[in-house]
Amino acid sequence: MVAISTANLRKRLGEVFDRVQYGSETYVVERKGRAIGAIVPPRLLLALQAQQKDARGKLLRLLDAHAEADRELSDDDAMEIALAAQAEVRAKRTDPTTR
To answer: What span, in angstroms and rounded, lies between the C-alpha atoms of 82 and 90?
Structure first.
């Protein structure tokens, strides 16, 4: 991942997008040294969106399963379920066999 300032991005916009498209590079856009955005290849964005959708689906299924069991879900139980779903998605993201 390459950091690039907004001023430098304005000067090199075409080159940056060529590198993203053809070289699969990613950029973090910074203003005054703080990250304000990112430029990534579409395939990475689509993969992230798919992971988020998968995580939401798993969480909803888990919550539905608890509701069907006629069990009142405490805040602690809900947080535990959410963290477990998050850990599962993160493990899948770092597993090279799932890419």
So the answer is: 12
